[in-house]
Write a structure and sequence with these properties.
The protein contains 11 helices and 9 strands. It has about 350 residues and is α+β, with helices and mostly antiparallel strands.
């Protein structure tokens, strides 16, 4: 059994047992999913990217794809994806990997002398012990949420997003500050959300297929009508495309995803997620938007995550710019050339 298969089996069991829709609903109502996070920590999955010498699993970026997809597939109300992203950014900067739940955010200087540090969108800011911050210039810092002025809010997916400001720029460990590409945080965020979208879309497809098989109209299940079958087939295509994009974004042995691949994955996932949500609600009809039905738990996340770290339009523009900068004749050639370069580096 491959590493990915073992991780998929482990996180799949945890998600099925400890992140059912009832737990997701309670989390949206303000009850933390502590049992879920404890199980993840006890299994060591929260330290998947941490080197073995530091007590982690020592896995590569490509290995953790099943963990991130499961976060979307089960709508896990815990910061596992963000913790992995924070580990990747810290590792790329050569910094000590943060202990416990972590998140990452783009930092903006504030004040006349730039003495304050501000992060406007910190995912799960109420649950994390460390925020790995990256400025536009590429400066990486580890920041302590307890030293920040914090304002929490829930987004449309029911997940906490926090605005944090460190008046004096207090950090957990200033001495290990480092610098990487300032755009790396966008590529990490895009890759993670693309994988979560792919996982959530798989659940939306399963719910839709099951409903079409159970719902009887005009004397037979609506799934036997050609119009519904065509819509479900379209959804399956959208899911397959998003899943392949996520595979590309995580096809890397280093700490960080390839920028072009991450952009491709997020552009496709964001565009397809919106179409997938629309088709799913068309198949379900009015019942799909009710609070009692599970579909809306996932379609709200599809719509929210599709915009996180840049939507389809943003990444389409970035892909076009990347192709022009590289002198490629097409996006396909840009991705293939990037793949060849990565293979040469690996060898």
């Amino acid at each position: 059994m491959t590493t990915r298969a073992m991780l998929a089996a482990a996180i799949g069991r945890i998600g099925s047992d400890l992140s059912p829709p009832a737990v997701v609903r309670r989390a949206e109502a303000g009850v933390p999913a502590d049992d879920l996070w404890t199980a993840i920590v006890d299994s060591g999955l929260d330290r998947a990217l941490v080197p073995e010498s530091a007590g982690g699993a020592g896995l590569a970026w490509r290995d953790v794809l099943p963990l991130v997809q499961a976060c979307g597939e089960h709508a896990m109300p815990v910061p596992l994806a963000e913790t992995l992203g924070a580990q990747a950014l810290a590792g790329a900067a050569g910094m000590a990997i943060p202990e416990g739940a972590a998140s990452f955010a783009l930092l903006r200087p504030q004040g006349a002398a730039n003495t304050a540090t501000d992060a406007a969108q910190v995912a799960w800011g109420d649950r994390v012990r460390t925020v790995v911050g990256l400025s536009a210039s590429g400066d990486v810092r580890m920041l302590d949420p307890e030293k920040a002025i914090v304002r929490h809010r829930r987004d449309a997916a029911g997940e906490i997003r926090s605005s944090m400001q460190w008046p004096g720029g207090e950090s957990v460990d200033r001495g290990s500050a480092a610098r990487i590409d300032g755009l790396a945080i966008l590529h990490v965020g895009a890759a993670l959300r693309a994988a979560q979208l792919a996982g959530a879309m798989q659940t939306v497809l399963r719910l839709s297929v099951r409903y079409a098989g159970d719902r009887v109209q005009f004397g037979r299940p609506i799934g036997r009508f050609q119009a519904i079958q065509q819509q479900l087939a379209l959804m399956a295509e959208l899911v397959a495309q998003a899943t392949m994009g996520a595979e590309l974004a995580f096809d890397c042995d280093g700490w960080l995803p390839d920028p072009m691949r991450a952009a491709c994955a997020k552009q496709v996932a964001s565009a397809n997620a919106l179409r997938c949500a629309a088709v799913a609600h068309a198949v379900h009809g009015a019942i799909g938007i009710t609070a009692e039905h599970d579909l809306q738990l996932f379609t709200r996340r599809l719509r929210t995550w599709a915009a996180d770290w840049g939507g389809a339009h943003h990444w389409a523009i970035e892909l076009g710019r990347g192709v022009l900068r590289g002198g490629h004749s097409s996006l396909w050639h840009a991705v293939i050339e990037g793949s060849s370069a990565m293979a040469r580096e690996a060898n």
